[in-house]
């Protein structure tokens, strides 16, 4: 009996995409708050977060209203831990977001997300080829 269709490599790619998506959300939040007085720039370290996710440390706090309903994540719970950056060249208003650095971070993360997606696509295509060969 197969417990999952995902092998270890595919699970790693899946988790990497989850972390890349969370990094994207973090950078987007930083960009949206670029002019908010007192806002502290947040960063999500990829390696540390992926390692924690693989160890199962970052599980959402799940709430169930009814046993047959889908689980909901508590709105005040963060699935991923963010690191506040205090001293990154803040302005007079106490905001530490640097627009150029965040745009660079967003572009870099987008490229890495696309690369992981391509690796995962290649795995799916390989499985599709094996299935097609087995049927023929």
Structural class: mainly alpha
Order of helices and strands: HEHEEEH
Q: What is the C-alpha radius of gyration, as a whole number of Å?
A: 19 Å
The number of helices is 3
Task: Tell me what portion of residues adopts beta-strand conformation.
Answer: 5-15%
How far apart are the termini? 24 Å
Q: Strand order, main sheet: write it out.
A: 1-4
Number of beta-strand segments: 4
Mean pLDDT: 78
Q: Helix coverage percent of residues?
A: 40-55%
Total of domains: 1
Overall outline: elongated
Structure description:
With 136 residues, the protein is mostly helical. It has one domain (8-135). It has three helices and four strands. The chain has helices at residues 8-32, 46-54, 99-135; strands at 42-43, 62-63, 72-73, 83-84. It has a two-stranded antiparallel sheet with strand order 1-4. The protein has a two-stranded antiparallel sheet with strand order 2-3. A hairpin with an 8-residue loop joins strand 2 and strand 3. Helix 1 (8-32) packs across helix 2 (46-54). The two termini are 24 Å apart.
In short:
This protein has three helices and four strands, in the order αβαβββα. With 136 residues, it is mostly helical. It has one domain (8-135).
């Amino acid at each position: 009996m197969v417990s999952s269709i995902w092998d270890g490599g595919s699970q790693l790619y899946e988790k990497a995409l989850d972390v890349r998506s969370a990094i994207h959300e973090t950078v987007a939040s930083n960009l949206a708050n670029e002019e908010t007085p007192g806002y502290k720039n947040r960063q999500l370290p990829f390696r540390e977060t992926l390692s924690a996710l693989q160890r199962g440390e970052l599980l959402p706090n799940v709430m169930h209203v009814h046993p047959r309903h889908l689980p909901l994540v508590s709105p005040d719970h963060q699935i991923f831990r963010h690191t506040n950056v205090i001293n990154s060249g803040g302005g007079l208003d106490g905001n530490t977001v640097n627009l150029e650095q965040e745009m660079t971070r967003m572009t870099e993360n987008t490229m890495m997300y696309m690369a992981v997606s391509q690796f995962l696509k290649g795995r799916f295509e390989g499985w599709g080829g094996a299935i097609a060969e087995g049927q023929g």
